Amino acid sequence: MDAPLITTDRLILRAQTLADFDAAYAAGQEERVHRYIGGPLTRAQAWEKFLRGPSFWSLLGYGLWTIEEQASGAYVGQIGFGRFEREIDPPLPAIPEGAWVFGPDFHGKGYGGEALAAALRWADAQLNSKLCCIIAPENEPSLRLAARHGFAETRRADYHGSETVVLERPAPGG
What we know:
The protein is of the alpha+beta class. About 30% of the residues lie in helices and about 30% in strands. It has helices at about 20-30, 30-35, 45-60, 110-125, 140-150; strands at about 5, 10-15, 65-70, 75-80, 90, 95-100, 130-135, 150-160, 160-170.
């Protein structure tokens, strides 16, 4: 299964392509992007992470979308759901985990809310599942975004020696 195409007023959520890698790698090198997600990756690490996106769709029936700006065709970031098998204590529940990252040129434009609302509409219709996500406690913009879209803190956990916030969003109708 490939990522379904979703359009919003300003964005296109689509399957990632090989042509997206250089833009995704460049965005991940920006301090404003990587400071809350573990620091910059080497090109090889970024490539391995990039390859997870399409495999989630084929193995799980859900995954990550590439976000593209409609007006310019620019790479905005990635959003979606995965099963990351994180080494987190205590472990995350066995439910889809929401994830999002936006290039620094697109912070503060409302694209996060627009993309997350679209991804969650798809998840509610297709997965009908409770969702979780983790966010660094210092990442206030991402915590606000998650809260606006129904995620609530359930606990704190240790992730690679640092405290992280675990949030969950109930299944539709739940």
